[in-house]
Design brief:
about 180 residues, alpha+beta, four-stranded antiparallel beta sheet, globular
């Protein structure tokens, strides 16, 4: 961690060097060389890295919107991607994806096939929650039925995919082409 202060608190040296060889813990040249200086001083940094949500399709009239929220490539490689699905109260839809994903519920309650989804408002020590799910590649490609069981609140879930799962994901800057 290349910060010496966070929220007015000192960040220990150990956090800076924790993933470096022990023999290099005091080698300032080695430590500074770990930074990608060219990328960090890019005058068009925002232009080259900024992401806004990109809808997968125009489904708002059906009561739900699936959006790409993490997309593009890093040095020509897709290391990960993510989508945000928002369903209006009482809405049900089927979503097909190309690969396995981890899911976290960030608002509302509902179902994912037969599994309950519920975003906890308060979690006490030792309590279990129903806000995280892993979806296999077979289930994702067959299609998963999402349903918002609330009468008043949207259901919002995030799906995180691994490397190269979504080769058709938008490229960096695609948000500028949004047509809906």
């Amino acid at each position: 961690m290349y910060q010496s202060l966070v929220e007015g608190r000192e960040v220990p040296w150990a956090l800076l060097v924790k993933d470096m060889p022990k023999s290099k813990h005091r080698d300032l040249d080695f430590i500074v060389d770990q930074l990608d200086w060219e990328a960090n001083v890019d005058p068009d940094f925002k232009e080259n890295h900024y992401l806004e949500p990109v809808p997968v399709a125009d489904t708002q009239q059906d009561g739900y919107v699936d959006r790409w929220i993490v997309y593009g490539k890093v040095n020509g490689q897709q290391y990960f991607s993510a989508k945000e699905l928002t369903l209006d109260p009482g809405v049900k839809c089927t979503i097909k994806d190309k690969g396995a994903y981890g899911l976290i519920t960030v608002q509302g309650k509902g179902r994912m096939n037969k599994l309950t989804l519920d975003c906890p408002k308060l979690i006490r020590f030792h309590e279990l929650t129903e806000d995280e799910v892993f979806c296999t590649e077979a289930a994702a490609s067959a299609g998963v039925i999402f349903e918002n069981t609330s009468e008043v609140e949207p259901l919002v879930v995030l799906r995180y995919f691994g490397p190269d799962v979504n080769p058709d994901a938008p490229e960096m800057g695609s948000y500028r082409k949004n047509t809906f």
